Amino acid sequence: MSKLGLLASRVAGGMVSEGVKQLAQGNRPRASDLLLTPANAKRVAEQLAQLRGAAMKVGQLMSMDAGDLLPPELADLLARLRAEAKAMPISQLNHLLEREWELDWQDRFQRFSFYPIAAASIGQVHAATTWQDEQVALKIQYPGIKESIDSDVDNVATLLKISGLIPKDVDYQPLLTDAKQQLHDEADYLLEASLLKRYKALLSDDPRYRIPAVYDALTTEHILAMEFVEGEPVEHLHTQPQAVRNYVMALAFELLFKEMFTFRLVQTDPNFANFLYDIEHRQLVLLDFGATRQYPEHIATGYQALISHAIHDNDIEMQNALKQIGFFSQPITTRQQQAVVDLCKEACEPVIYDGVFDFGRTDLAQRIRDAGTALSTRENYWHTPPADAIFFHRKLGGLYLLAARLKAQVNVRALFMPYYLSV
């Protein structure tokens, strides 16, 4: 908390310095412009990185969710949190492995790399080779993460409040409550192992997707042992031919629709690091299932109806579908309700479009931001959507951002049509 207080004073000091500079140049800056300077954004991002744990996880989610919706300086700096976590000291790592396995745990492996090949907010990944020549990826959880989730998320709420990065009128407490539960689930590696196996079974008849096998003998509540799978990080595919980029994004959208409408089990974390692409075998590799969420039938069919009626521009039936999903449970005016429907139409544009949608030539993210701003300011509608909707929208928005980064061209409507409800 003392660090957060120091951060608040540094942000305020940065605002004063920037304000003096702008006034000296004859400008009359707004307070929001002074707050979101590159220097202040850097201070917030660095503080989240030091907090690590659940606090850093929320920072990562902000960088994924926001994309073009945040000022570029803040989005770029928050994006660093997806890749620049601090690794555990080797002595701490060894102590953790002795506790989870046994004192002579190294006898299990021909080779074990003490330096992580990836480090994230809740754990870090190490490569190892068993005596059976199996290449294993070990996701090892940072000590104490589970116990610190609630306090860490509360600290993030404090950070957002004192830094002014979130408007004071926004009630984000319900979202933080759901974030805590989601993070507790993500910190349960036995749960993730069971979900990974479940997904592998669900996709067993589709060779276009690859999911690592679980090594049960090495897996514990704090260590997830998986088959080591190689591939190209999806965000690096921007140098690949257009056909490859289109194919990868088509696989991602097809999977999301199948998750929601067939499995009713959605991996809701859109972090690009959760996907690899095996160029040789043309397979989309799925790595992380900690943020997987089971969806009830009424939510899944509600989204089927919402998208189907959006295709036909039927506002009344879209409103009914939104009510089924859980929107409009609080008092709302007719104008506010129509504004929510209009925002859904914007978000459904790639599905509504009858043909190949070019994500590299659209201002969709900007228009969604403008529509959301209008809803919250001119229409004064600040109610938090249902948690199930928030997590699904986060995944869909993440795919939109990835498709835009790859400048992909995808017939999203054709991928949705197997789930279309005749109207």
How does this structure look, described?
By secondary structure, this protein is α+β, with helices and mostly antiparallel strands. It has helices at residues 2-24, 31-35, 38-51, 53-66, 72-79, 90-100, 145-163, 173-186, 189-202, 242-263, 297-311, 315-325, 334-347, 349-352, 364-377, 387-406, 412-416, and strands at 109-112, 118-119, 123-130, 135-141, 209-210, 223-227, 232-233, 265-267, 275-278, 283-286, 292-294, 357-358, 409-410. Strands 1, 2, 3, 4 and 6 form a five-stranded antiparallel β-sheet that branches. A hairpin with a 4-residue loop joins β9 and β10. The radius of gyration is 23 Å and the shape is globular.
Name the descriptors.
54% helix; globular; four-stranded mixed beta sheet
Topology:
Layout (H helix, E strand, L loop, with lengths): L1 H23 L6 H5 L2 H14 L1 H14 L5 H8 L10 H11 L8 E4 L5 E2 L3 E8 L4 E7 L3 H19 L9 H14 L2 H14 L6 E2 L12 E5 L4 E2 L8 H22 L1 E3 L7 E4 L4 E4 L5 E3 L2 H15 L3 H11 L8 H14 L1 H4 L4 E2 L5 H14 L9 H20 L2 E2 L1 H5 L7
What letter string, H or E per element, gives the SSE order? HHHHHHEEEEHHHEEEHEEEEHHHHEHHEH
Total DSSP E strands:
13
Which runs of at least 5 residues are low in confidence (pLDDT < 50)? 1-24, 28-36, 60-74
Q: How would you characterize the largest beta sheet?
A: 5 strands, antiparallel
Query: Any idea what the shape is?
Result: globular
Beta percentage is 5-15%
Total helical segments: 17
For the record, give the distance between the C-alpha atoms at the N and C termini, rounded to a whole number. 55 Å
Helix/strand class: alpha+beta
Mean pLDDT: 79
Helix content: 40-55%
Radius of gyration: 23 Å
